[in-house]
């Protein structure tokens, strides 16, 4: 019984990835273009999210600054989820809703990209970061699920919305990780060209 339940988790995840592949390929490609344009123009990617999405933001930044699968110079990315002094000071002195937007105001520049990750599309602090990014003339790449929530209505035409077509948080997060790996792979492809396997 338990093994069947475990197998079903794998099947459900695989089914969603197959279903999402066609739907998400174009917005992911658009996101790649936005990131490459920013990086080659001297910009950077700021990434934020809560809980598992915070981990995704940090995972993404690590693969940009370190490497994904190929050796290359580090790419400029900052996870806004990692500095406990900033997070606790801003959360305490102001409120939790501005822990990311304060950092976007301080660190963001026109031409930078905000990678805003929220499975529901309704995380108040991520929505506030998007508002701050727009004020800084940054492009927003939003990773959501569940129809996009409030995020869907906050995005501009110049932003990119990658919305996983599912309701369950775990499944959405699994696809978000795949999306981030697709971003890393495609950015490397754009910057370095095809890999010579000879």
UniProtKB/TrEMBL annotation:
Principal subcellular localization: cytoplasm
Pathway: Carbohydrate biosynthesis; D-glycero-D-manno-heptose 7-phosphate biosynthesis; D-glycero-alpha-D-manno-heptose 7-phosphate and D-glycero-beta-D-manno-heptose 7-phosphate from sedoheptulose 7-phosphate: step 1/1
Any Gene Ontology CC annotation: cytoplasm
Keywords from the named record: Carbohydrate metabolism, Cytoplasm, Isomerase, Metal-binding, Zinc
GO biological process: carbohydrate metabolic process; D-glycero-D-manno-heptose 7-phosphate biosynthetic process
Domain SIS: 35-197
Quaternary assembly: Homotetramer.
Note: The reaction produces a racemic mixture of D-glycero-alpha-D-manno-heptose 7-phosphate and D-glycero-beta-D-manno-heptose 7-phosphate.
Record-linked NCBIfam families: gmhA, PRK13936.1
Stated family: Belongs to the SIS family. GmhA subfamily.
Protein's UniProt name: Phosphoheptose isomerase
UniProt source species: Piscinibacter terrae
């Amino acid at each position: 019984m338990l093994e069947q339940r475990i197998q079903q988790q794998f099947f459900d995840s695989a089914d969603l990835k197959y279903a999402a592949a066609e739907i998400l390929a174009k917005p992911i490609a658009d996101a790649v273009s936005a990131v490459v344009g920013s990086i080659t123009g001297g910009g950077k990617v700021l990434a934020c999210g809560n809980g598992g999405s915070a981990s995704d933001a940090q995972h993404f930044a690590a693969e940009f600054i370190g490497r994904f699968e190929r050796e290359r110079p580090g790419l400029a990315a900052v996870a806004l989820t990692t500095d406990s002094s900033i997070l606790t000071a801003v959360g305490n002195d102001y409120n939790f809703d501005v822990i990311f937007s304060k950092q976007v105001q301080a660190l963001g520049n026109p031409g930078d990209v905000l990678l805003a990750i929220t499975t529901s599309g309704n995380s108040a602090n991520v929505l506030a970061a998007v508002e701050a990014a727009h004020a800084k003339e940054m492009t927003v790449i939003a990773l959501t699920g569940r129809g996009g929530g409030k995020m869907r209505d906050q995005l501009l035409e110049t932003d990119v919305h990658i919305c996983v077509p599912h309701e369950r948080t775990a499944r959405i997060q699994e696809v978000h990780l795949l999306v981030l790996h697709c971003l890393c792979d495609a950015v490397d492809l754009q910057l370095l060209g095809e890999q010579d396997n000879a």
